[in-house]
Structure formats: structure tokens, C-alpha cells
Amino acid sequence: MQKEQFSRIGYVLAVAGSAVGLGAIWKFPYVVGENGGSAFVMLYILICCLVAIPVFLAELSIGKLSESDSVNAFRKLAFKNKKFWGYVGGLTMVTAAVIASYYLVIIGWVFKYLTLSFTSLPKNIESSKDYFLEFLTKDSLGQFVFFALAFATCLLILSRGVKSGIEKISVWMMPALFLMLLFMLFYSCTMDGFIKAAQFLLVPDFSKITLASFFSALGLAFFTMSLGMAVIITYSASLSDDANLFRSTISVVGINILIAIIAGLVIFTFVFEFDAEPSQGVGLVFMSLPTLFANLGFTGNILAIMFFTALSFAALTSAISIIEPFVFFLIREFDISRAKSLAIVGGGIFALGILCIFANIEGVGDKYMVFGKDFFSFLDFTAEKILLPLGGIGGAIFAGYIIKKEALYTLFSPYMTDFMFDVWHILVRYVSPIFVLAIMINMLFFS
Ligand code: PHE
């Protein structure tokens, strides 16, 4: 089979496109809000360096050394228990596809708010809340239409393959996203709320750090860096041979943190400008922000259009990255066409997505609860709190203990000093798996 590879910049932008998504722009601000602001941001950055970067490099090495899909990557590189490791790879890829189903439903909400931004936005928090809840719990058709639109867009991009689909879309969507956020940042600078937002996000207050914030930072770092989900393995399998592996990784992490902070500054400027509550959870983007924009009249509409377009771009590039691993696996394993593979994976995701939509619809969702949770929350909980950390630990243990150290050294030594390599190897063997296990136990039993 002909090798289809990303260009150097294409890889960085595609992986950054995967990383920067609803996590960075939607979750990051509200988790920061809930955890007291700036000190949490520093903690997040620290954890990115100590845990996320080592696991990222572990997954990159699995992808690059094997140049295979995530199942065969593990099988190929394991010298024994090949079958077991193949299942680990398979699990991460299935998790990714499952996450894709509800992720696309949320992108549907973003699309809905993008269209709303062209008309009149809800003027106060009460009506904004009602509007969102009405859409979420009653409008199954509306949600379906926007979900189907998000789904079709992703499939269209994926049908073109790595180079002319994923790379092409990432190299213009990512800079466009960045420019839009930058414009919004400049606009925010002119508002009084900006100073407060900057203080909130950037001046650390360590008294606000608790054990719970520590775990939230770990979970967030994993989710926002697309780890534990076969994504980095799959993309790295198509990484060109002349890429600087270490620099590419640092660029991706840097872009992700930068964008999350810019998005946070913009959102909190509006929050403080209009005296809204910074720690209000998931409603921040879908309930408060539209109202805050509505206060600015026509300019508010323009800003809202920009914000929801940026969020759509960020989320679409992430969604394609979670669908690709399964698609790539089927193509390689069964030697079928990309179109056929997309039809199979897409069919499953589409069905799950519809179940997720109806899970929130009043009078329907309670007919198929799983373990006391509605179907949407059940998928979200199982994928993010159980399967994703397990996949992360699997990758770290595999690179740390199963792949031969010499092979890793040969791969990384052109780009890292010996000291850096040793530090990474120790982190990936001892620190990352323990940290991730700790997040998992905490999320499962204490939150
Ligand atoms: N990193 C993406 C985000 O922040 C989500 C994602 C998770 C994408 C896992 C791929 C894999 O929204």
C-alpha cells in the first residue's frame, strides 16, 4: 500500500487541530473558573510537561516506529502477548469512535448557536437558559439536523484521506481559528473586564489549589491533548521521516496552551465586564456567553459569529481526528476502500449519535438509562473517566516497558539530548502511569 504522509507543518497543524477543540475552548475556561483561576492554569501547564508530553511522546513513538494503525502498531512492536496488546490498541480506537458520537452532537449545538448569532441572541440569562434547555430537551429534530450537518462535514473531509483531507483542512482552519481568537482578544483588550480576566487567569494564587484541582488538571490535560485515544498513534504513523519529533510535540503542546489561554481571556473578559459568575460550569459557553454578546448589539452579533465559527473549526478538526483511527484500521486490516471503511464506522457513530440526542429529550431519554445515567452521560462517563485513562496508561506502559529502549533511543536521539531522553524514559515508566491511575481512581470514586 502506498504510504500517504503528512508534511511537517501539516502534521503539527493536524495534531494541534485534534488537540485544540471543545476541550481547550469550552472546557478549559469553565474548569479554570471552577478551580479558582490562575494557579490552576500553572498547574495545568506543569502537568502538561510532566505527564502529557511524556505520554504524547510515547504514543508518537508507537505510531512512528510501527507506521501502522493503532491495533497493528501494538501487535507489531510487542515481542510477546501480541494479541493482548492488539486489544489495547483496539480499545483506544473504539473509545475514540464512541467519543466522536456525542462530540458530534455537541458540534451540532455549536452550529445551532452559530446560526442564532446571525439573528437576535437571548437578552438575559433567564431567557438564555430557557432557550438552551428547550433546544436540548425538546427539539430533537433541530438537534438531529445540526448533528447530521456536523457528521456529513467530517465524513467529507475524511473521505479525502490524510493528505488532501485532514492536512488540507487543518492548514487553513487552524490559522483561521487563531486569527479569529486573536481579533477577539484585541477587542477584549479595549474592555474594562480585560484586566480582571488577565488577573484571574494569569496571576497565580496558590491558596486556591486543592487535591481536586490537581485531578481536574490531569484529566483536562489528557482530554485536551487527545491522549489515550489512538489519535496520536494514528497521525504519527503518517508523520514524515524528516520531521523533528521533539520540536513538533512541543509546538503542539504550546499551540494548545496558547489557544486555551486566549480563549479563556476572551471569555472571562465578557464574564467580568458584565458581572457574570466565572464558575458556572458547562453553561458558560451556551448560556452566558450569548447573553453577554447580546448586550453589545450589532458588534455582539459579529463577535458571536466569530466565536462560534472558531469553536466549530476547533471542534471539527478534533472530531475528524477521533474518527480517523478506526477508519485507518479497517482500511489496513481488511484491505477495503476508504469509502467502505467510512460507511462502516460512520454508520456506527451516526446511530450512537442519534441515541445521544434522544437521551436528552424529555420523556424519551429516561426509557433507556444505563446504570442510572442517561445514555449521553453514560457514554461520556465511560469514555472519559474509564477508557481514556486506561488507554493512556496502556500507551505509557507499552513505550516504557515493552518497546526496546534502543529502538526508542534511535528514534528520538537526533532530536533530544541524552539527558532529556533519560528523563523522558523515567517519566513514562514511573510517573505517568501512576499519575493517570490516580486520576482514574479519583474520578471514579471521589467526584
Ligand atoms: N482534544 C480534543 C478537545 O480538546 C478532544 C479529543 C479528545 C480529540 C481525544 C481527540 C481525542 O476537544
From TrEMBL:
Main localisation: membrane
Membrane topology, from the record: Multi-pass membrane protein
Annotated GO CC locations: membrane
UniProt keywords, alphabetically: Membrane, Transmembrane, Transmembrane helix, Transport
Coiled-coil zones: none
Regions crossing the membrane: 9-28, 40-63, 84-111, 141-159, 171-195, 215-237, 249-272, 278-298, 305-331, 343-365, 386-403, 423-446
Subcellular location: Membrane
Pfam families: SNF
Protein origin, superkingdom: Bacteria
Protein name as catalogued: Sodium-dependent transporter
Organism: Campylobacter californiensis
